[in-house]
Amino acid sequence: MGKHNTPMLDELEKGPWPSFVSDIKQQAEKGKHVLKEAPDDLLGVMELSYEDRVTHWKHGGIVGVFGYGGGIIGRYCDQPQNFPGVAHFHTVRVNQPSSKYYTAEFLGQLCDLWEKHGSGLTNMHGSTGDIVFLGTNTDHLEPLFFELTHELNQDLGGSGSNLRTPECCLGMSRCQFACFDTQECCHNMTNEYQDELHRPAFPYKFKFKFDGCPNGCVASIARSDMSVIGTWRDNIRIDQAAVKAYVGGELMPNAGAHAGRDWGKFDIQKEVIGLCPTECMRWDGSKLEINDKECTRCMHCLNTMPRALRIGKDTGASVLFGAKAPILEGAQMATLTVPFMKMESPFSELKELIEKVWDWWMEEGKNRERLGELIQRKSFQEFLRVTELDPDPRMVDEPRSNPYIFWKEEEVEGGWTRDIEAYRKKHQR
Amino acid sequence: MPYDPADPLKDRITDIGPRYFKDFLPPVIKNNFGKWLYHEILEPGVLVHVAESGDEVYTVRVGACRLISVEHLREICEIANKHCDGYLRFTTRNNVEFMVDNKSKVKPLVDDLKSRKFPAGSNKFPVGGTGAGITNIVHTQGWAHCHTPAIDASGVVKAVMDSLYDQFGQMKLPAPVRVSLACCLNMCGAVHCSDIAILGIHRKPPMIDSQWIDKLCELPLAIAACPTAAIKPAKTDTGLKSLEVNAERCMFCGNCYTMCAAMPLADEVGSGIAILVGGKLSNRRSKPKFSKVVIPFIPNEPPRWDTTVKAVKNIVDVYSKDARKYERLGEWAERIGWERFFEKCNIPFSHHLIDDYRFAYTTWRQSTQFKY
Fold first, then answer.
1. CA separation for the pair B256, A247 (Å, rounded)
2. DSSP-derived secondary structure letter, A13
């Protein structure tokens, strides 16, 4: 039994799913973390919240490491006398490597560091992708940062009104659908914009995320101010023999994703051709045809028959802007802005684009106004002028239905200056 | 040289970014980078990826808590050292993936993972989370670490995942069901495009700590933070500068509290859970969709959140029985019609579910097409 009596949390040790309560308890009992009381007191303060049904954490103060305006989030308990081990319980965001591969050696070093300077508790990973060291006090921040950089060659992530830690799917490392090297792009862009990541100069947070294909495993379209999603502009590669093998039942459809239930024999007509949203496919019993010009690359056929169909060879990415969660004006998804861009290191075209966007947002954005809200306030047309992109029907679901067009004076023959006297010569009052 | 507190800026290293990912790739991954041909799910939680070279990598995916201890991480490292030549990775949804380069290494790994349990009985490394099933719930900090939550996060997730545990280890659903939790409307967890979203909401306007507010906050910032202009300047009886909230205009977003610590709004009965369904992120077949509110409020019920658990389980069960193969939850609801969704799921429809915010009109029905 730990320091505090936690009958409610103990209920969460039951059941088959891994119990975070059991895990915190094992850290409290066996852990070598320097802030000895932290895991016990975290359980204590959580138990109090379970009794009270409200949180017992206060707003963070300004804490950080010298020279950085982000990466550390201050956190204080509102019952410090009862839970001294978590009275100060600051979070350290450590920038994860692209797509979260680790060696046990490096992960062990991170554990060593965190035992030496904190609570022994982490998030693997935070919502934005960082390795999160959960809970330490101010005195440990500078030594921790020193050892992180000097010994582990590793930097902090972002927080506050700056570039947040970019994130990517696992991309080419282990996925046949990756249309560009999401990991290299994420790493390159993270390093290019270290200043923006560590020193808040933006109106509000800004997120990059990189998805290798339209399946969107890292959710960039919903949660990043700039969403980069892999795509291609030539033809889906077809292995006709493998298509026949799917039809004949020799290959497992959907890569086995539906194997847990008996859905009947695979029916290419019903499950692939019939579900294609653009109706651009045909199967005559021996040959699969795709009218690639009409394909919108939704991935359904590739997901269904991954051994028969491959993405095209002329690959790149679509770039979308403006996604965010509901605070404040309501949730937004990212809007398609560049339908296709080649994505080769060092990603210069993408960098030119984002720098134009940032210049505009930093000039025009209000305090705590996300890019998506600014685009709505100032118009998509204004956004296109800033990014020097030509309007394209691919940017809209449909053209506007209201005729309230904000014509510019230079677009109208003769301009807007007219002579009322000349008008009156033809039209009496 | 170790850190010198007397001279903290000496030899300072900054702006070096994260470690390079290629230093952490298992050899089979590194050798076949960008040259993968296809993958297959051999059984729930076990995948094989085959490269052009003929090389294969076998991945075993296990669920994990997002809040995870160093002790547990060390056990993960031990497993990676024992079976995987010291390599591993985490997924976007807080799963851990152990990779081996030969099929013969899979069974010993899976058996080892399945054998490990916490002393109280829960599994340390449940294998699953692939294909048309339920994978790990992404979530936020809740009462473990956050100042603005309406609900806990880790505890609700644990209770819900216990009830959906079978679906984690099977692939029996019509399509993947992504469940997410955010403990307040800030949505660090970005749950607004999930098949099922569990969202913490408040229902009482902020209290004003009048004796302190002018010392703790920039009052104009707090006023400006309100999206419905419900906050205005006020004075206390003793003449202190303060604020006043027009309660009828408050939509309980908590943005004022984010800007001003003297306006707390969390409450033991006012705060609780809303359930949203039908969102998706993938572009597969239909476009990405937002999740829609279908249950406006469920009280906080620690420690096991029984009503929430039942509500989520019910929606998953009805969807599982009724939807067609490949149909995501939102696609199913749109095909049968939302009126039918509420009927089939036996969820009451109330005025709370009709939008009255910025884009409200776009969600009202301008048609005579409806179902009885």
1. 59
2. G
CB B358 within 8 A of CB A330: yes
What's the rounded Cα separation, in Å, for the pair B253 and A214? 32
Quick one: closest CA in A to B193, which residue?
A: A222
Mutate to test the interface with B, among A173, A209, A263, A265 (most CBs of B within 10 A): A173
- Are the C-beta atoms of B319 and B311 separated by less than 8 Å? no
Per the CB < 8 Å rule, is B71 touching A30? yes
Partner residue opposite B73 with nearest CB, options A107, A167, A170: A107
Q: Tell me how crowded residue B311 is: count the other CB atoms within 10 A of its CB.
A: 21
Residue A147: partners with Cβ closer than 8 Å, 6 or more residues away: A113, A116, A117, B3
Distance, CA of A361 to CA of A386 (rounded, Å): 10
Give the CA count within 13 Å in the CB-facing half-sphere of B301.
Answer: 13
Cβ pair B194, B279 in contact under 8 A: yes
Element (H, E) at B215: helix B213-216
The answer to whether B152 contacts A298, with C-beta atoms less than 8 Å apart, is: no
- Four-point Cα dihedral A47, A50, A51, A55, nearest 10: 90
User: How many CB contacts within 8 angstroms connect chain A with chain B?
Assistant: 420
Interface probe with B: pick from A23, A132, A147, most Cβ of B within 10 Å: A23
Tell me how close the Cα of A196 comes to any Cα of chain B, in angstroms.
10
Nearest-neighbour CA in chain B from A425: distance (Å): 47
* Residue in chain B nearest A31 by alpha carbon: B71
Predicted confidence pLDDT, tens digits, chain B (372 residues): 789 999 988 999 999 999 999 999 999 999 999 999 999 999 999 999 999 999 999 999 999 999 999 999 999 999 999 999 999 999 999 999 999 999 999 999 999 999 999 999 999 999 999 999 999 999 999 999 999 999 999 999 999 999 999 999 999 999 999 999 999 998 887 799 999 999 999 999 999 999 999 999 999 999 999 999 999 999 999 999 999 999 999 999 999 999 999 999 999 999 999 999 999 999 999 999 999 999 999 999 999 999 999 999 999 999 999 999 999 999 999 999 999 999 999 999 999 999 999 889 999 999 999 999
Taking the Cβ of residue A20 and every Cβ of chain B, the question of whether any pair is shorter than 8 Å is answered with yes
Which residues of chain A neighbour B16 with C-beta distances below 8 Å? Answer: 149, 153-155, 194
Structure tokens of A326?
Answer: 């509901």
Contact A325 B182 (CB under 8 A): yes
| pTM of model > 0.95 | yes
Q: Among the residues of A236-299, which ranges form H helices?
A: 240-248, 268
Within chain B, what is the greatest distance between any pair of CA atoms?
Answer: 80
**Residues with Cβ < 8 Å from A331, sequence gap 6 or more?**
A222, A324, A325, B192, B193, B290
- Alpha-carbon distance of A421 to A183, in angstroms, equals 67
